[in-house]
Structure of TIGR04063 family PEP-CTERM/XrtA system glycosyltransferase:
Amino acid sequence: MRILHVLDHGLPLQSGYTFRTRAILKAQEARGWQVAAVTGPRQGAVADAVESVDGLTFHRTLAKRPAGLVGEVAGIAAFARRIAAAVDAFRPDILHAHSPVLGALAALRVARQRGLPLVYEIRAFWEDAAVGNGTGREGSARYRATRALESWAVQRADAVAVICDGLRDDLIARGIDREKIVVSPNGVDLDLFGEPAARDAALADSLGLGDAETIGFIGSFYDYEGLDDLIAAMPALVATRPKARLLLVGGGPMEAALRAQAAASPVAAAIRFVGRVPHTEVERYYALVDVLAYPRKAMRLTDLVTPLKPLEAMAQGKLVAASDVGGHRELIRDGVTGTLFPADDPAGIAAALATLLADRSGWARRRTAARAFVEQERNWSSNIGRYEPIYQRLTMAATVDGSWQRSPANR
């Protein structure tokens, strides 16, 4: 089986998107499949048309990052040309395009030209992601147009993969055949998060966390993550738990505003910002944290989409506390594998965290249950099998139809 993945962006850029992609490609290689990827104009400046990163082959679209409607249309055309060239070089059995929808549109053009089956994988709806990032408004003309374009692409793909039940149910409500959709949930590469790192006492002391009860967030600082609510919860939490400290690792569009909010807090001394750290260093910071907090705000994006970070925390054997939005409820069983608190409610966040810190008697049981959940249901080495029935069905149909003639070397 030869799969060409079509990506908005990929390694060496670091994001939840690229880490999920890496996990998929590595797990597919371990299964004995041959994989390659094509990245679009949003990858940014690249030196070579083909690059090897972390042992994976990426074909690059050498085009300017698109801006405005005209730029997006030109970007799709350039992306399609690069996908076609990668098809010529790699000779795949199947195209597997990943959201946003612009990549699906470019891949669909090539799939139809070459008679290749196309799987379109949606990690979030682009229109809802724009609202969450503060670059769009729900219900606007652009929002409705993007939603319609997404539905159009889904209807024309040969199969659709989504990362969670929320996205699947939304597509079914739009009239998409449920038999066409497979859920391929976010998972963890346990080769990367297999054994929790030992606590680095020197690092803890350098951050003033030597004997602290540390609440942590490690990820991107977007508005929808609700970190302003977490910072707002700290005065009440510190009043109840004087040793409570907040460790924020990462960066993003909200960083300046969050730093200003923290500096103005009456418990500013209890809040630490680390900034971005290399992915290879993340485990050192996980090891400092008692409870990983994910206070996502309530909105369509967070109700429909499951995040990756809580799963990484569970794999690290960490306690997880999160807002009760739909995406979190798919991952966390309140009181069993983690704690759920009300979204958009600093007082509720403070109360839930204080209760958790006050009684450690059930911590070991929760950690064990959360780790078992990841190993059994969110482990990429087993999750990857969800793609196999789709790939086999589509490639067999293409072979019977005779629409895609493999080269002799690939028979």
